[in-house]
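Q: what sequence does this backbone want?
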């Protein structure tokens, strides 16, 4: 139900006028509705390109997914076998059969470097290291895009994070706005830890989706505001904010019950239970479907955290025991997302990125696990009109060092910004001291030329 925050007086429907007036400043994960509208009014971009970023919380084992080392000793190469893909000469893990059959649409990067080795989503959300941040902090990718481009539709925020709260808070980071300002924080419907995509500020998805009920309530309160003249004094953007609350666009995008059940089955649905030991991210493939629905509704950037990939071994299962559960689910979810984007004609407009904060050790430890390894990791790019069917970079014989074409985090971000029509050589956002800040270290890093 709609939450009442005060009781100066109540209307017959049980909603206070103070509660109604507070809706105009409703924070969507820090993005107030009037601020959202002002940003939309100032937006210079009338077209929509989007990015879906899938964060594999904990650091996925690159040498057990896209970069198997069959010539290495047994204590390095692990238990999995490679399989051929539909692109001659490219092989990936046997537990990724769906991705193998669409390799012509994918770009595995086997040589991601520059990780600072923290158990955190921060570097995957910003491209920057946690240390030596400017005042206010580095803004996340989605917050930068929100600041530069604003929303596509007034009723849909430009940046949405589907990441849930986790015991390891840095894994469940939805993305901080930093010096870009709170109005560019993500809308984070899952960050309360709820499993059913409940919206913030006490407004349930059912209520927001029930336009008839909501319109009736707002109409009653609007008439009361008109009666005492307060509505005339409201800022124009504040008045438009009420219109957002009556729009079903965002609510419909988040309501997966509106999707064909066969499509949900193709994605794999998954579970909202924490994956693996501890309170980590779930293997909820509905996230991938929700991400597609959100970009289709007009969201520019969607981020999500998926699973727990921090596998140090017994007593919590070996790397390979855990991977046999995680990797096939990821395979189904990502392949369904890519197919869906192609089927809907969104394959040139939406770029998909899958990665984690670091890789895993070449050598398997005594407990059957792989430990943290920031020297090299992997990523996967898809769609966005990028040139698929190729592998970028390579590692040495043991998978411990980048051998050919090391790719820095910021090169990936430069690529994503270009995909959205943002020139990293020119675009800046002022920090809290009024100093223009570039989105990346643009003198050093450029978009990946291989994919264009």
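A:
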């Amino acid at each position: 139900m709609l939450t009442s925050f005060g009781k100066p007086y109540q209307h017959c429907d049980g909603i206070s006028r103070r509660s109604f007036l507070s809706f105009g400043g409703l924070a969507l994960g820090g993005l107030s509705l009037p601020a959202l509208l002002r940003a939309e009014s100032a937006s210079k971009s009338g077209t929509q390109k989007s990015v879906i970023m899938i964060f594999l919380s904990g650091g996925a084992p690159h040498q057990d997914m896209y970069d198997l080392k069959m010539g290495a000793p047994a204590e390095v190469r692990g238990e999995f076998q490679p399989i051929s893909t539909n692109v001659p000469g490219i092989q990936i893990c046997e537990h990724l059969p769906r991705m193998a059959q669409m390799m012509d649409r994918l770009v595995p990067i086997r040589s991601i470097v520059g990780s600072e080795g923290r158990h955190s989503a921060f570097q995957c959300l910003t491209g920057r290291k946690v240390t030596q941040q400017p005042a206010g902090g580095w803004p996340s990718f989605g917050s930068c895009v929100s600041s530069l481009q604003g929303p596509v539709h007034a009723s849909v925020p430009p940046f949405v994070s589907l990441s849930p709260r986790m015991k390891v808070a840095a894994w469940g980071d939805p993305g901080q706005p930093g010096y870009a300002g709170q109005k560019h924080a993500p809308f984070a419907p899952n960050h309360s830890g709820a499993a059913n995509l409940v919206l913030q500020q006490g407004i349930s998805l059912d209520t927001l989706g029930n336009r008839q009920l909501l319109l009736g309530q707002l109409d009653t309160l609007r008439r009361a505001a008109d009666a005492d003249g307060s509505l005339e004094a409201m800022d124009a953007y504040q008045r438009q904010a009420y219109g957002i609350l009556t729009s079903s666009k965002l609510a419909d995008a988040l309501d997966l019950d509106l999707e064909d059940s066969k499509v949900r089955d193709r994605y794999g649905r998954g579970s909202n239970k924490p994956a693996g030991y501890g309170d980590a991210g779930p293997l909820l493939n509905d996230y991938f479907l929700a991400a597609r629905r959100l970009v289709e509704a007009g969201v520019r950037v969607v981020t999500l955290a998926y699973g727990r990939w921090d596998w140090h071994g017994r007593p919590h299962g070996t790397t390979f025991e855990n991977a046999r559960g995680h990797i096939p689910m990821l395979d189904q979810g990502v392949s369904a997302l890519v197919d869906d984007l192609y089927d809907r004609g969104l394959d040139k407009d939406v770029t998909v990125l899958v990665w984690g904060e670091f890789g895993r050790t070449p050598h398997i430890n005594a407990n059957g696990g792989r430990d943290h390894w920031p020297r090299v990791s992997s990523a996967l790019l898809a769609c966005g009109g990028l040139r698929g069917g190729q592998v970028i970079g390579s590692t040495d014989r043991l998978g411990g060092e980048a051998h050919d074409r090391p790719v820095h985090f910021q090169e990936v971000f430069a690529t994503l910004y270009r995909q959205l029509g943002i020139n990293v050589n020119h675009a800046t956002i002022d920090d809290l001291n009024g100093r223009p800040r570039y989105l990346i270290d643009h003198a050093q890093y450029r978009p990946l030329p291989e994919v264009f």
